[in-house]
Specification:
The complex is a heterodimer of chains A (about 120) and B (about 110).
Chain A (H helix, E strand, L loop, with lengths): L4 E3 L2 E4 L5 E6 L6 E8 L3 E9 L2 E5 L6 E5 L5 E5 L8 E8 L14 E2 L3 E5 L1
Parallel strand pairs in A: 2-11
Antiparallel strand pairs in A: 1-3, 3-8, 4-5, 4-9, 5-6, 7-8, 9-10, 9-11
Chain B lengths: L4 E3 L2 E5 L4 E6 L4 E9 L6 E6 L5 E4 L2 E5 L5 E6 L8 E9 L6 E3 L3 E6 L1
Parallel strand pairs in B: 2-11
Antiparallel strand pairs in B: 1-3, 3-8, 4-5, 4-9, 6-7, 7-8, 9-10, 9-11
The chains are: A mainly beta (about 120), B mainly beta (about 110).
Chain lengths: ~120, ~110
């Protein structure tokens, strides 16, 4: 069973540029979440998508956006990159049980991440 | 804002010793999850504890959820070099956003 696949693994961009990261969830997983991991702040929630709709959003500026496609694959975009955006971006998928109130209790499967360096 | 405080942040011990990592909050969580992360990889789920007072064992690892569902601990007995890694606790909210709040992590080093 294939895991969560994130591409690319590494990326170097210049300040002011924009970047798009891709995530393919485990087959059958319909919820995709994105997290930013930095040494100073740890893992912080960016947003979560389910059935092509953004259900939840963290406290990040509007430069961070995402979307989900009908096959559950997701992309996140960061526009006007800043040095502080350098981080490991992690995608996580989970199995949503219809009618289950606390879906998060079932845990998440993370991808290996995309290491973004902004210079 | 829900916060999880994890301690210690760094721990370096000898092979064979026991250790405990703590995860504390003033907030109540629906569940506490523990993940382990290797360098260059994403976190891997070790366990989810859901019921207050719940204890789960995974070989030499014992996880406990506090009675009030505000804290959790991870105890490792007879630590081995293969246990080296970053251990993260994460809480799922009682209501609202389906997301995890992560602790800062404990970087564990087991010396042979």
């Amino acid at each position: 069973k294939a895991g969560v696949t994130q591409t690319p693994r590494y990326l170097i961009k210049t300040r002011g540029q924009q970047v798009t990261l891709s995530c393919s969830p485990i087959s059958g997983h319909r919820s995709v979440s994105w997290y930013q991991q930095t040494p100073g702040q740890g893992l912080q929630f960016l947003f979560e998508y389910f059935s092509e709709t953004q259900r939840n959003k963290g406290n990040f500026p509007g430069r961070f956006s995402g979307r989900q496609f009908s096959n559950s694959r997701s992309e996140m975009n960061v526009s006007t990159l800043e040095l502080g955006d350098s981080a490991l971006y992690l995608c996580a998928s989970s199995w949503v049980i219809t009618g289950q109130r606390i879906e998060s209790n079932y845990g998440y499967t993370f991808g290996s991440g995309t290491r973004l360096t902004v210079v | 804002t829900q916060l999880l405080e994890q301690s210690p942040q760094f721990l370096s011990i000898q092979e064979g010793e026991n250790l405990t990592v703590y995860c504390n909050s003033s907030s109540v969580f629906s569940s506490l999850q523990w993940y382990r992360q290797e360098p260059g990889e994403g976190p891997v789920l070790l366990v989810t504890v859901v019921t207050g007072g719940e204890v789960k064992k995974l070989k030499r690892l014992t996880f406990q959820f506090g009675d009030a569902r505000k804290d959790s601990s991870l105890h490792i007995t007879a630590a081995q070099p293969g246990d080296t890694g970053l251990y993260l606790c994460a809480g799922a909210a009682i209501q609202g956003a389906q997301k995890l709040v992560f602790g800062q992590g404990t970087r564990l080093t087991i010396n042979p």
